[in-house]
Each structure stands twice: as C-alpha cells, then as structure tokens.
C-alpha cells in the first residue's frame, strides 16, 4: 500500500472538518468565561509617596489601611483617590503638600491629582455588581424619598444646620465645592444617599468605614444601628430584644465574621442572623445583594403600609411575592415551613390592623379638620393635633409594624400598638372638640428655629 501524499492528507482533514456536527463549534463558544484575579505586586512611586506620607501625618488612617484586605491585595491610596485633572472634586489644597521642603515626598515629581471623596463610582471599578445593586436601593435614593415625604424639610420647620447635624448625617448631603474646597455646609458626610460631585449616589463607607473597609463591620448589627435607631425607626433596639439579637449577644464572638463574600452561611459561620444576614447576605439559594429594597413585602416606613412597588415616594421595581419568597428562603435556613408561614400570617395581620384601625380613621379626621379650616396646613407642627397625627404613624405606628416584623414583642405592643391607642385617642378627642365648638386650633406663635430651605434640591429633582 502506497503512503498517502501530503496533498491527500490535507484533503482528508478538510473532509473530516466538514462532517463535524454543526453545533460543536457553537458549543465550544458556550463555555463560561474564565474568571481572572491578578495582584500587581509593584506600585508607582506616587503611590509609595502617599503611603509613606500618611504613615507619618495620619498614622491611624495608615494603620487602618495596612490591616485591610485592600492592602493585602496591593490596593493603594491612588487606586481609590486618584482623579483626573478636570474632575470637579480634585483637592486643590492637597497640591500644597508638593511644595513643602520639610517632607521627603513633598516634591513635584510625586504631584498627582487626588479627590478626598471616594464615591461608589470609584468603587465600581472593582465592585461593579455591588454598586449597581446599591444604586437602585432605597439607601442610595434616600434623599429623594426624604424630600417627598418629610414635612420638616418641605415646610422649613427646622434650620439648615439642624438638618446637617441630624437628618443629613444618615441620609446624606449634596456635596458642593466652594473656592476649590469642599463646602463645610455639605462636608464631612458619609450618608447613604449622599449626592457626589461625579453624579453618583451614596457612600460605601456608611457601612464599610474607611480605611479598613471591613466586611466584618458591615455584617454586624451595630453598623446598621448607627442610623436605624431611636423613636421613629428603632431597628437596632428591636433586633436586640429579639431572639436573634439575644443569640448574637451571647454567641457573636464565636461567629466567623471574615468569611469571603457570598459564602457566609447560617449554621456554619453564624448561629442567628444579623441585619445583613437577612437583608443583604447570600443565604441558601438567595444571592447576595446590596439593594436593601429587595426581600421586602411591605413598606413599613410609609404612613399607610403599602407594597414596596406602591410606595409613591420611591416605587420599587420588584414583585413583593418574589421578594417575600426570597426572605422566606433566608428564614428557612434555620426555621421550618410552618414557623415561617405562620410568622407572616401574624405580620400581615398587624399591618392590616394598623392600616384599618389606626391610620385610615385618623387620616380621614385630619383631612376633615383641614377642609373645615379648623387646622391650618401652611405650616406643619405649629398645632398640637398635627404633631399627634404625625407621631401616630411616624413613631408608634412604625414601631408597632417593625416590632411585629422583627419579633420584638415589647416594641410591637408597649412601644407600638399600646401607644398607638393613646395617641389615637388624644388626637380624636382634640379633633372632636374643635368640630364641636367650630373653633380653629391654637397655633404656636413662636415655634423655634425654623427657616430651613424648602427648595427641592435640583441635583435630585432637576432644575425647574
């Protein structure tokens, strides 16, 4: 038998390629993309300059960074703070350091534009999914929500500084630059809905404080308790009263707080959930999300409890049934079906009773008083019944609903529905007295420290 020529071999290979099933090449392209993670061990001289300078000038900041996962991955100051020359938030004051002769790294060769404010847009270079999720959450959009529902802002019933030191500390400010520096009326601030100069919303350091950016810190309830506390939204107090909080207080030092993102597992890394475990962390088949609007089936902060998609101030683009199923899956990591299902029966009943027995009758009466000119709604809170109605839903009503949701009986009853009853009775008694005598309510002539700006911020609502 003669050996096949080179030409013959090439012809045979061509024929074989033609008879390969048509879907094979297409299937080869269907393989999942290989994930890549690379650590650069070198760093530019400018990054070395940042580190060495801050090691001396701000040793606490340096120590925090040095102990972080960022430092372990060789993420330096420049990776987060470097800016372009034309950026609005470039720190001009920082340039002054490069002309100092008393600092080894204060030389022109190390000069580089930096921004003091690190924004979610900056973080998105390495954490795109987390920033995308966060951007659609109630946290990121909380300034818009606040201006749509808050009478203190819309009626100017507090001062601008009272807002900055109180409301805006958690909700966020709208950052501004004045004479090349961050405007002190808007800075410092790490509010969850802060409007940044690059157009992004929020601050990742609200929960992952700089410069450690610890996942452990964000997983602990104390991170949420910085803002979610007090008479109107006492989630941290409610959590501490619950069985979940009791177990955390007892066994929290045994939890594996530093498990990698997406791997933190009930029964393995922790015995009872924290706020993050229920609302954000991955659990079972439920994926991790930085959108705290997910997994909610009722909007319990609203005056009248509605589904999240029906919350007029910020309609969620979610299906409450889908989100409730997610939360149930989280619960089912530790509880049985009957426990979880019956818990939601109780919660739904609490919502129904609050809506029908307390809020709706009181709101009907309030509207009637305004219609009869017995209350004046040009300036909210300068009449006692306006305060009574506001606190019925904003204080006791929220506590009753949130206490019922998070298994805190004292907040559901004594701080909740019990106080709702007394507030409701006082409001209705006062309302009927005004109607009986057809006499307008007494107005406080010297309500203190009002005059806050009532202009809805153009950065949120557009220039009109």
Automatic annotation (TrEMBL):
Pfam families: Cytochrome_C554, Multi-haem_cyto
Keywords, in A-Z order: Signal
Keyword flag Signal: yes
Annotated signal sequence range: 1-27
Keyword Signal: yes
SUPFAM superfamilies per UniProt: Multiheme cytochromes (SSF48695)
Domain Cytochrome c-552/4: 123-185
InterPro entries: Cyt_c-552/4, Multihaem_cyt_sf, Multiheme_Cytochr_ET
GO molecular function terms listed in the Swiss-Prot or TrEMBL record: oxidoreductase activity
Protein name per UniProt: Cytochrome c-552/4 domain-containing protein
């Amino acid at each position: 038998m003669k050996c096949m020529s080179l030409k013959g071999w090439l012809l045979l290979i061509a024929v074989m390629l033609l008879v390969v099933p048509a879907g094979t090449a297409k299937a080869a392209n269907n393989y999942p993309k290989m994930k890549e993670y690379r650590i650069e061990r070198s760093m530019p001289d400018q990054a070395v300059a940042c580190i060495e300078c801050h090691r001396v000038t701000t040793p606490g900041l340096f120590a925090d960074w040095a102990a972080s996962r960022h430092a372990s991955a060789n993420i330096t100051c420049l990776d987060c703070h470097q800016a372009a020359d034309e950026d609005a938030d470039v720190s001009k004051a920082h340039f002054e350091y490069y002309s100092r002769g008393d600092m080894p790294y204060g030389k022109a060769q190390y000069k580089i534009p930096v921004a003091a404010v690190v924004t979610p847009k900056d973080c998105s270079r390495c954490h795109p999914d987390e920033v995308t999720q966060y951007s659609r959450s109630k946290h990121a959009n909380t300034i818009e929500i606040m201006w749509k529902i808050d009478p203190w802002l819309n009626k100017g019933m507090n001062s601008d500084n009272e807002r900055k030191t109180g409301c805006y500390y958690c909700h966020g400010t709208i950052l501004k630059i004045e004479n090349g520096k961050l405007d002190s009326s808007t800075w410092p601030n790490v509010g969850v809905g802060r409007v940044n100069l690059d157009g992004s919303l929020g601050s990742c350091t609200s929960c992952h404080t700089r410069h450690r950016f610890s996942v452990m810190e964000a997983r602990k309830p104390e991170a949420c308790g910085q803002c979610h506390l007090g008479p109107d939204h006492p989630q941290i107090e409610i959590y501490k009263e619950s069985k979940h909080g009791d177990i955390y207080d007892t066994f929290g030092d045994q939890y594996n707080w530093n498990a990698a993102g997406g791997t933190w597992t009930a029964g393995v890394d922790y015995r009872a959930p924290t706020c993050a475990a229920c609302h954000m962390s991955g659990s079972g088949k439920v994926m991790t999300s930085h959108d705290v609007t997910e997994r909610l089936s009722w909007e319990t902060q609203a005056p009248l409890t509605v589904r999240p998609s029906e919350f007029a101030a910020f309609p969620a683009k979610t299906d409450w049934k889908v989100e409730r199923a997610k939360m149930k899956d989280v619960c089912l990591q530790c509880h049985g079906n009957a426990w979880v299902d019956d818990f939601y029966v109780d919660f739904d009943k609490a919502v129904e009773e609050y809506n029908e027995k307390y809020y709706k009758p009181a709101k009907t009466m309030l509207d009637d008083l305004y219609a009869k000119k017995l209350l004046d709604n040009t300036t909210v809170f300068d009449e006692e019944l306006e305060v009574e109605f506001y606190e019925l839903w904003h204080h006791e009503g929220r506590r009753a609903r949130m206490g019922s949701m998070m298994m805190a009986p004292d907040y559901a009853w004594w701080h909740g529905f019990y106080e709702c009853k007394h507030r409701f009775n006082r409001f209705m008694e006062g309302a009927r007295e005004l109607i009986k005598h057809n006499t307008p309510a007494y107005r406080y002539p010297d309500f203190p420290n009002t005059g806050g700006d009532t202009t809805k911020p153009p950065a949120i609502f557009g220039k009109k």
